[in-house]
Amino acid sequence: MKKIIYILLTAVLASSCQKADDNGDLGGFWKLLKIEEFTTATTIDTKEYKRFWSIQLDVLATSSEDDDSYSYNYGGKGRFQHIGDSLFVQMITISPSSDLKKVGLYNPKDERFGVVLLNRNKMILRSKDALLEFRKF
User: Are 53 and 35 within 8 A, CB to CB?
Assistant: First the structure.
């Protein structure tokens, strides 16, 4: 009987130490489908490439597949804040070989997005440079 009590107590203590992810629909793994650049008036279809944002707790990580060599690039990691209809992104570590424009970050040190649409399957973000369309992966 004492063994069962110790096992239950250990399970409760272990589960209470984890941070709660309160990102709601924003949390998870997002695949970038399309970038509409405002400065060049072009639309870049990225469905065929592996370009992702991973959002967990208060950390945003990006990754992308290089267009021609199919090498994977772990673009960077940073922090974000989702306040009302805005998403503020500040990348802290950026891979030297990464081009964060491929994942929609034109000002990675201080990017502000307006959240146009966010639900459990789809996200559309708008910055001063581009409109980004994602689907949950």
Answer: no
- Could you give phi then psi for residue 24, rounded to 5 degrees? 60, -135
Whether residue 67 contacts residue 42, with contact meaning beta carbons closer than 8 Å, is answered with: no
Q: Which fold has domain 21-136?
A: Lipocalin (2.40.128)
AA letter at 115 = V
Domain positions in the chain: 21-136
Distance CA 59, CA 89 (A): 9
Extract the tokens encoding 99.
């081009």
Instruction: Give the model confidence (pLDDT) of 29-64 as tens digits.
Output: 999 999 999 989 999 999 888 899 999 999 999 988
- DSSP state, 100? G
- Whether 87 has a pLDDT exceeding 70, the answer reads yes
What pLDDT is recorded for position 6? 44
Which secondary structure element, helix H or strand E, spans residue 125, and what is its range?
strand 122-126
Q: Residue 50 has what pLDDT? A: 87
